[in-house]
Amino acid sequence: MQFYALKSTVLKVLCSRINLAPICKRNMACSRYEYVKSYELDDRILPNVWIVIRIDGKKFHKFSNAHKFEKPNDVNALNLMNAAGIAVMKEFRDIVLAYGQSDEYSFVFRKDTTAYKRRASKLLTYVTSLFSSSYVMSWPQWMDRQLSYAPCFDGRIVLYPTDENLRDYLSWRQADVHVNNLYNTAFWKLVLQSGLTNQQAEERLRGTFSADKNEMLFQEFGINYNSLPPMFRKGTILLRKRVVQSEGDDQEKGSQAIVPMHDDLIREQFWREHTEILSKYVPGKYVSPSVVPILLKMQLSEESQLVKATMS
Ligand SMILES: Nc1nc2c(ncn2[C@@H]2O[C@H](COP(=O)(O)OP(=O)(O)O)[C@@H](O)[C@H]2O)c(=O)[nH]1
Ligand SMILES: [Mg+2]
C-alpha cells in the first residue's frame, strides 16, 4: 500500500515536470492544468422528481414602461412571452407543460428526463438563454415599437417530489395572476379613467378584499371581471398536443403543436382532461376550435410551409 502511494507521488512529480497531468492516459491530450476540471461540481438533479425551471424578467416594471406596454395587460407583450415559451418547448421535448403570466414563465420537465444528464446548470442556462434570445428574435413580430435595450431574465430550478406538489406549485402561480390582475385592473381604472394619482388609487384599494374590488369594477366602471380575456385572468398554459379538426379524427394523423390555453388549472377538471401530463407524456388530442388561437395558427402554417418546401 505504502509502496503504491510512493509510486503514485513520484509519478505525479514526474508528470508535472514534463507538463502532463498525473492521471493522463496514453494517447490523451492533457496538460498539467487538467486537474482544475475536478473542481467542477457534479450538479446532476436527483432522479424521479419534477424539474421546474422558472424564468422572470429583470426589472420589467421599468422595461414595460420604457416600451409603453398597455396597462395593466398588453396582449402583444403577453403573446411575445408565449411565443418565447413555445420556442423553448419546441427545443426541449421533455417539457410537458409550461405556464406563463406577466413577465414569468415556468417550464415543467418530465420526471424521468435524461436531457443533459439532468445537469442543473446546463438545463437552467439553456432554458433561460433560449427564452431570452427567442423573446428578442420574436419582438418585431409582436411589437410595433423598437426594442430600445436588451431585456434579461433570471432563472431558477425547483424540484417537486410528488404530483401534488407540482400541482400546488402551478396553482400557486395561477392564484398569483388572479390576485395581481384583479388589483391591477382596479388600480389602473382608478388612475386612467377616474384620474386618481397612483398614491390615491393605492390608498383607495388598501385593505380591500377581492369581492370589494369586483364590486367596485362593476359599480363604477361597468366591468364584469369574469368577462375580461381569460389570458389576463388565468395566464397561459402551453401543452404539447396533436391537433385534429374534429373529435372523431385519428389522433395520430393530427399535427403536433404547442397549444396555448387559458384554463383553470387549479380545478380537478383540467387534470382529468389532460391526463398525459402526469402519466405517459404522449401528446394528447386537441380538437381545433373554430377560432384558432393566433399562436397555434402560426405554428400550423409554419408546418404546412415546411411540407410545401420539402415537396417542391
Ligand atoms: N404595463 C404592463 N406591465 C407589465 C405587463 N406584464 C408585466 N408587466 C410589468 O412587469 C412587472 C413584473 O413583476 P415583477 O417581476 O415582480 O417585477 P420586476 O422586478 O420589475 O420585473 C409587473 O409589475 C409590471 O410592471 C403588461 O402586460 N403590461
Ligand atoms: Mg420580473
Notable traits:
single chain, 312 residues, alpha+beta, binds guanosine-5'-diphosphate, binds magnesium ion, magnesium
How would you explain this protein's 3D organization?
- Its EC number is 2.7.7.79.
- GTP binds at residues 56-61, 102-103.
- Mg(2+) 2 binds at residues 56, 103.
- There is one protein chain.
- The chain is α+β, with helices and mostly antiparallel strands.
- Among the domains are: 2-39, no CATH class; 235-311, no CATH class.
- Helix content is 46%, strand content 16%.
- The chain contains ten helices and seven strands.
- The protein has helices spanning 2-17, 60-66, 75-91, 120-142, 163-192, 198-205, 210-221, 230-234, 268-273, 294-311; strands at 50-57, 95-101, 104-109, 153-160, 236-244, 255-261, 284-287.
- Strands 1, 2, 3, 4, 5, 6 and 7 form a seven-stranded mixed sheet that branches.
- β2 (95-101) and β3 (104-109) form a beta hairpin.
- α3 crosses α4 (120-142).
- It is globular and about 80 Å long.
- The relative contact order is 0.11.
- Bound molecules: guanosine-5'-diphosphate and magnesium ion.
- Residues 56-57, 59-61, 64, 69-74, 77-78, 102-103 line the site of guanosine-5'-diphosphate.
Topology overview:
Blueprint: H1 2-17, E1 50-57, H2 60-66, H3 75-91, E2 95-101, E3 104-109, H4 120-142, E4 153-160, H5 163-192, H6 198-205, H7 210-221, H8 230-234, E5 236-244, E6 255-261, H9 268-273, E7 284-287, H10 294-311
Parallel strand pairs: 5-7
Antiparallel strand pairs: 1-3, 1-4, 2-3, 2-5, 5-6
The protein binds guanosine-5'-diphosphate and magnesium ion.
The site of magnesium ion (MG) has 4 residues, from β1.
